[in-house]
From TrEMBL:
One of its GO terms (molecular function) is hexosyltransferase activity. It comes from Hymenobacter psychrotolerans DSM 18569. Keywords: Glycosyltransferase, Transferase. The keyword Coiled coil does not apply. It comes from the Bacteria. The keyword Flavoprotein does not apply. PANTHER family: PTHR34136, UDP-N-ACETYL-D-MANNOSAMINURONIC ACID TRANSFERASE. This is N-acetylglucosaminyldiphosphoundecaprenol N-acetyl-beta-D-mannosaminyltransferase.
Length: 260
């Protein structure tokens, strides 16, 4: 697997985007019941404050540095190691293309039937060789144990190599962790990447992403839902990073809550 480095108390995988693609496809090929997290600032702050979610994140087979601040923080806390951003929105199409080339199958779980239909339509148009094993849009409520068992049975019967999950953070990460050992596939929590790939949401130009403006664009799209999260989460992230950096500079060791 890809090497991991600590950012705050979370273990973030490192490497190039092609290395992430290859590692994920190898997990799929091995039919590992494993999961992949695409870690942004919101997830790091949630993990820092919630030991249960910290364990979920640190037990991921791969925790990609999805946010630009997360990728930059890998260098801040690990002697200047350079790490590029590896976003789920970018890796989803790359993974589908490579899955088609390697003749691996995929399954899409989450969002709505409309979004799933748009995803499958684009994939079949651009990647006619891609094997789509199935899709499922669960209801917007917790599934009953019977419903969950039926969904797991359907996924395993379809036998995908990769299972893309879009339930929103942290629900999708908790869902993947709770289904590790039950679903025979590599699960990937890609969230909003479904909407982008389906063509239902536009992304900022590359130059704007390099300036770390994607959070501002998301806030502009959904101000009522996101303003409070971004205000509190971004502020806490800066505080946690500064506090840890000062402690590191002063030579004071800090406790790493989970080591796996």
């Amino acid at each position: 697997m890809l090497p991991k480095r600590y950012v705050l108390d979370s273990r973030i995988s490192t490497g190039t985007a092609p290395e992430f693609v290859d590692a994920i496809l190898r997990l799929g090929e091995a039919r590992c019941s494993a999961y992949v997290c695409f870690t942004n600032v919101h997830m790091l702050v949630e993990a820092h404050s919630n030991p249960g979610f910290q364990q979920v994140l640190n037990h991921a087979a791969i925790a990609a540095p999805d946010g630009s601040p997360v990728a930059a923080a890998v260098g801040w806390f690990n002697r200047g190691q350079r790490q590029e951003r590896v976003a789920g929105m970018d890796l989803l199409p790359a993974l589908l293309a490579e899955a088609a080339r390697r003749q691996q199958s995929v399954y899409f779980y989450g969002t709505t039937e409309q979004v799933l239909e748009a995803i499958v339509a684009r994939a079949r148009h651009e990647l006619p060789g891609l094997r789509v094993a199935g899709t499922y849009a669960p209801p917007f409520r917790p599934l009953s144990p019977e419903e969950d068992e039926a969904a797991v049975a359907a996924i395993n019967a379809a036998d995908p190599d990769l299972l893309f999950v879009a339930l929103g953070c942290p629900r999708q990460e908790n869902w993947m962790a709770s289904h590790r050992g039950r679903i025979r596939a590599c699960m990937l929590g890609v969230g909003q990447a479904f909407h982008v790939y389906a063509g239902l949401e536009r992304r900022l130009p590359v130059w704007a992403r390099r300036l770390w403006l994607e959070w501002a664009y998301r806030l502009w799209l959904e101000p009522q839902r996101l303003w409070r999260r971004y205000l509190t989460t971004n502020t806490r992230f800066v505080y946690f990073v500064l506090r840890r950096a000062i402690a590191q500079y002063a030579g004071r060791p800090h406790h790493q809550r989970i080591v796996v």
